[in-house]
Amino acid sequence: MPRLSVNGIDLHVVDRGTGRLLLLVHGFPLDHSMWHGQIGQFAATCRVIAPDLRGFGQSPVTDEPVTMATYADDLAALLDALNVTEPVCFCGLSMGGYIAWEFVARHRHRLGSLILCDTRAAADNEAARRTREQAARRVLKEGPDFLADGMIDKLFVKSTREQHPEIITQTQQVIRSTSPVSIAAASRAMAARPDVTGRLPDIDVPTLLLVGQHDAISPPSEMRRIATALPHATFVEIPDAGHMAPLERPDAVNAAIEYFLAEIRNLN
Ligand code: MLT
Questions:
Q1: 243 C-alpha to center of ligand 1: Å?
Q2: Helix or strand or coil: residue 2?
C-alpha cells in the first residue's frame, strides 16, 4: 500500500484499476479494509482509491485537533497528489459521509456524484456530544478495547454476528490497533460537526443513499428524509444488514452501486 505525502502527513492509500474514479472513505474508528468487498469488484471497471484517513489504519497519527473539514481537505490534497483531475464519485460510510458533506462544501468542483452509506445529516444532540467526550477521555486513559467490545452490537446485525464471526474479529482487530489519540480526535470532531440539513437542497449531484435495514446508528427513516431533501437522490435499503452494510451484504451493496454508476454513465 503506497504512502503519499499530503498536507504534511504520509497517507496510506489503495489505488487500483483504471477508469472513472471511485473514492471510498471509511467510517469510525476503522480503515480502508472495511471496503474489502467493494475494492476488488469495482477495480475491474473503475479507478478505486481507498485511503486510510489520518490517524487510522496505516496512516500516521497527528496530534493537532481535527475537524470533518480537515479530513475532507486531506482527501482533496490526496487527489492532487494522485494527479486526479476528473470529477470523482465520493462514497463515504457514516463518518465518511460526514466528511462527504464538507467535501461538497469545500471541493464541489472535484465532485461528480455521491454515495452516502449509513450516515446522517443532523448534528449530535447534547447527550451524544457528552457521550463522545466521555469516550474520548476513556480511550485516552484505557485504550480502544472497550470500543472494540462495545461497538459490535451497534455496527452489525445479529445474523452477521452469528454467521460471519471472521468479519467481527477483523473489525475488532482494526479498532484495537487504532491509536487512542486518533480515536479521541475523531470523536471530538464528530461531536463538533455541524447540522447540514439546510444544505441538502443545494447538493446538485446525483446521489445514492444506501442504508442497512436494521442500522441502529443512522436508521433508514432518517436516511430516507435526507434522500427526500436532496434534489437528485436514489434511496436503497439493504435487507438484513446493520450499520456496516457494505461489509455485511457486499453483493446487495455492490449491485446498488453498479446500477447507480451505470445510470450516471448514461446521463453523461
Ligand atoms: C461511524 O461508523 O463512522 C460512526 O459510527 C459514526 C458515528 O459515531 O456517528
A1: 9
A2: coil
Structural domain boundaries enclosing 63:
3-124+195-267
244 in ligand 1 pocket by Cβ < 6 Å?
Answer: no
Q: In the chain, how many domains are there?
A: 1
- Find out whether the beta carbon of 178 lies less than 6 Å from any atom of ligand 1: no
Q: Is 28 in the pocket of ligand 1 (CB under 6 A)?
A: yes
Q: Which are the contacts of 2, defined by CB distance < 8 A and separation ≥ 6?
A: 12, 13, 15
Q: Is residue 140 part of a domain?
A: no
Domain assignment present for residue 144? The answer is no
The grid cell for 16 is 487500483
What CATH number is associated with residue 258?
Answer: 3.40.50.1820
- 3-class secondary-structure state, position 205: coil
- Encode pLDDT of 95-120 as tens digits: 999 999 999 999 999 999 999 999 99
Pocket test for ligand 1, best of 25, 171, 190 (most atoms within 8 A of CB): 190
pLDDT digits (tens, 9 = 90+) for 55-84: 999 999 988 889 999 999 999 999 999 999
